[in-house]
Design a protein that fits this description.
Blueprint: E1 2-3, H1 11-22, E2 27-31, E3 37-41, H2 43-49, H3 69-77, E4 82-86, E5 100-103, H4 106-112, E6 121-126, H5 146-152, H6 171-191, E7 192-202, H7 207-218, E8 223-230, E9 246-253, E10 271-272, E11 281-285, E12 290-292, E13 297-299, E14 302-304, E15 311-313, E16 317-320, E17 323-324, E18 328-332, H8 338-346, E19 350-353, E20 360-363, E21 377-379, H9 380-383, H10 387-398, H11 410-421, E22 428-431, H12 438-450, E23 455-460, H13 470-473, H14 479-494, E24 506-512, H15 527-532, H16 543-554, E25 562-567, E26 570-575, E27 580-583, H17 592-599, E28 605-608, H18 616-629, E29 634-637
Parallel strand pairs: 1-29, 5-23, 5-24, 6-7, 6-22, 8-21, 12-19, 22-23, 27-28, 28-29
Antiparallel strand pairs: 2-3, 4-24, 7-9, 8-9, 10-20, 11-18, 13-16, 14-15, 15-18, 16-17, 19-20, 25-26, 26-27
Helix pairs in contact: 3-6, 4-6, 6-7, 11-12, 12-14, 17-18
């Protein structure tokens, strides 16, 4: 019986496997530090294969580079032995909700979500910590702390006295921040749907570097644009230079097929098909495809309109119930040819004739109901979405002044979510710098307004609140606690009278793997040591802890409904009915009778705990029993 691997995917090995598909002679085997054999790339051979196009040696080339870039890439690709542990007592509607709140470092969270949510996230919004020159909380393994860096670079002496002024101008200020963002954005891209979008809020300090990072990760062709959000009604009177009242928002797509909804188009924004400088042509219109405000009746062939904008109706046309019911032809100075008109109609373009001059206007495809694109300027004042609005919303919800400095306003994030998910109201929205969880609030609010079923995944580090802060004084020890309480209170307020809106969330906390640490290479274990390792689960872990690590390992959606049944005195978890069945009994009570009863449920997947089988004969026969009674079931153990 196969075992689940119980750790995050090794992205490097996955990349090597893809290289092997293209260049099998460039991949060889090498022994790892633990003695195991792994795939490795023969870079000399690969260079030879790509010799006509490879940029190598000292030759100059356009690229973004900074100290720590290679380490950031390695960090993004390295697997981790961590898991997500459920926390029912901090959750709301744990068994039924489809929303997730993950507490822990977002780098770990993004790695853990790789298999389960690969290509499934429609929208990512992040508001990362801006690089103000102060130390930021996300310090990855490759990033030195401020003291180590200053000492090594001779900016302070061993007693801590500063030797160089203006450290905000040095390379570390940018390099550490870029490294932190690079590894996370690289992992986040994999989660995006093919027509998914990522929105990144940023200020002037790092907007140029962030664009270069995203250009490298997403490709310059997938840069959708930069938006400007009017965040204040007026700027600070203290500024003697430029008064900051806006903030940048960078937008990138997973591919060029993305689209954004800026509202339904009206007639004034449609396109006239007549242009007097164009040559005369004839267009044939199929029945029932042209909308009109003309009165019902029959319109005879002849000239309509005046001057060079006039058209000739070549056949009789009948109007019934707001549509031209008959096929008809027009002769005039058209900007479209017949083939293009036919394509636009096939793809859902709207055609309108509203006056007796028979002037045709068009709302172009691809949408059956034409829409405007999204403006690059977001007027926060008009939307009720300024910094002041965000502050007041959080204050009113948590009944505390100044609990966070600059929470984003709900209407701003709701506007972006609506623009991205207008055509998919069951989309997954991810925010891995959740802060006060404005994004979760906005998802729930928008669902209540348009009857949507969007889901959110929030990720927030349990960053300690300063003991002098209003948040700490109000009883919140970490930013994650503020974030969760905001979702609870916002959900309760939104759900009043609207019971169908999902305002719950599952709290999952990042922790070390449930599997006991083993410090031996496989070939170094003797029989006695193997017997000691039969129960390989850490003693403080629950059955539900094991269930969620199994779901991660198997790529099962972490928000699926979970039920628990008792079979022959043993607890059995069923995820989404028959998607997964799990029994983690560790007392040697699983016999063939139990296995047969479980097999009759015909789950798609089933998992057992190694220590749960009555004897080795039962363990050996498990797969045979399932092959006989439920051959489609994938059987594994931990």
């Amino acid at each position: 019986m196969d075992k689940l691997k119980m750790h995050s995917p090794n992205l490097t090995q996955g990349n090597i496997a893809r290289i092997r598909e293209l260049f099998p002679d460039c991949v060889t085997e090498a022994k790892g530090e633990d003695g195991s054999v792994k795939l490795a790339v023969d870079f000399d051979q690969l260079r030879q294969q790509l010799s006509e196009s490879l940029v190598e040696g000292p030759q100059e080339r356009y690229q973004l580079n900074w100290p720590g870039k290679r380490e950031a890439l390695l960090t993004a690709n390295a697997p981790i032995a961590k898991t997500l542990r459920p926390c029912r007592e901090e959750s709301v509607d744990f068994d039924t909700t489809q929303n997730l709140f993950i507490e822990g470092d977002n780098l770990d969270a993004l790695k853990l979500l790789q298999e389960t949510y690969l290509g499934k996230v429609k929208m990512i919004y992040i508001d990362p910590p801006y690089n103000t020159g102060n130390d930021f909380i996300y310090e990855d393994d490759f990033a030195e702390d401020a003291g180590e860096y200053l000492l090594r670079s001779n900016q302070i002496d061993e007693e801590g006295n500063r030797l160089i002024a203006n450290t905000a101008a040095n390379g570390r200020l940018h390099s550490g921040w870029i490294s932190m963002m690079y590894s996370r954005i690289k992992l986040a891209r994999v989660l995006l749907h093919d027509n998914g979008l990522i929105f990144l809020s940023i200020d002037d300090n790092e907007v140029a570097n962030l664009m270069k990072v995203c250009d490298e990760i997403f490709g310059g062709d997938n840069f959708v644009g930069s938006m400007s959000w009017l965040k204040k009604r007026k700027g600070s009177f203290l500024s003697k230079k430029l008064v900051s009242v806006t903030e940048w928002l960078l937008v990138y797509g997973k591919s060029e097929s993305v689209r954004l909804f800026g509202g339904k188009a009206d007639e004034s924004e449609s396109q006239p098909l007549i242009k007097r400088t164009n040559p005369v042509g004839i267009l044939k219109f199929p029945p029932g495809k042209v909308e009109t405000k003309l009165p019902d009746g029959t319109y005879k062939a002849g000239n309509y309109g005046e001057g060079s904008s006039s058209v000739e109706l070549l056949s009789t046309a009948s109007v019934r119930h707001g549509l031209i019911a008959d096929p008809f032809s027009l002769k005039g100075h058209f900007i479209w040819g017949q083939d293009y008109l036919d394509t636009q109609i096939k793809n859902g373009a709207r055609l309108i004739i509203n006056t007796k001059s028979f002037q045709v206007r068009a709302f172009k495809a691809p949408d059956s109901v034409s829409h405007k694109g999204l403006s690059t300027f977001v007027n926060g004042v008009e939307l009720g979405a300024t910094n002041e609005d965000g502050y007041e919303q959080l204050r009113d919800l948590l009944q505390t002044e100044g609990i966070m400095s600059y929470p984003k306003p709900v209407n701003y994030i709701k506007y972006l979510i609506g623009a991205t998910t207008n055509w998919d109201k069951s989309a997954i929205v991810l925010d891995f710098f959740a802060g006060s969880s404005t994004t979760a609030h906005a998802v729930m609010q928008l669902n209540a307004e348009d009857d949507g079923n969007r889901r959110f995944i929030m990720v927030q580090l349990p960053e300690p609140c300063d003991e002098k802060s209003e948040a700490f004084k109000a009883g919140y020890e970490t930013i994650a606690e503020v974030s969760k309480e905001r979702i609870r209170r916002a959900g309760k307020k939104i759900s009043e009278g609207i019971m169908q809106v999902d305002t719950g969330f599952r709290v999952l906390k990042i922790d070390t793997s449930n599997m006991a640490d083993v410090y031996y290479a496989p070939d170094s274990l003797d029989k006695g040591q193997i017997e000691l390792l039969v129960d390989n689960i850490k003693p403080d872990r629950t059955a539900e802890d094991l269930l969620f690590q199994v779901m991660l390992d198997w790529g099962v959606d972490l928000a699926l409904p979970i039920t628990r049944q008792t079979m022959q005195g043993k607890d059995v978890f069923f995820v989404d009915g028959d998607a997964l069945a799990a029994c983690f009994d560790a007392h040697g009570g699983i016999d063939e009778g139990f296995v047969k009863e479980l097999a009759m449920h015909k789950p798609l997947r089933v998992v057992f705990r190694d220590a749960g089988f009555k004897d080795s004969a039962v363990k050996i026969n498990v797969e045979q029993i399932f092959k006989l009674l439920s051959p489609a079931t994938d059987v594994k153990c931990i």
